Amino acid sequence: MSNMTDGPHPGGVLAADLIDDDLFDQLTARIARQHNQPHEYAGRIIEQTLLFLYACARNPGAGLTPSSPVDLGWHTFILDTHNYAEWCERVAGRFLHHNPEEPGDDKAAFAARLGDSVKAMRSLELTVDPAMWLSSGECSQCYAGCADDPSPEGITA
Question: What domain of life (predicted)?
Fold first, then answer.
């Protein structure tokens, strides 16, 4: 794996381009075990986490926000401090700090920030798994204009 901070952005980066297989498997297994998730789903969490963090690296100061599953993946990765710090240096050229955010009372603003994160990922030609980015709510996220519906243009496949 080369240093991802060198040169222009390579289009279509994959999670596999960002991390070695052993570390990917280790993080996936940890989520599956500690959070009682199917292995396949845990792998999708780690994949989207890596791509989100890559988007953060390429968009300093943008204030990108992780979805709940991606935040779980970020927490899992950041607790492996040595590997996370090395990854940040190689991919971002700096440490990517985690500033926890809760949706709070303004769910519409939080959904908009999630949409901005998805747009940033797509602008870098990164694969977005829509199911990993839907905000949690009491409805089915049918895009009926509710305050906590995520923006359809930001979320759809």
Answer: Bacteria
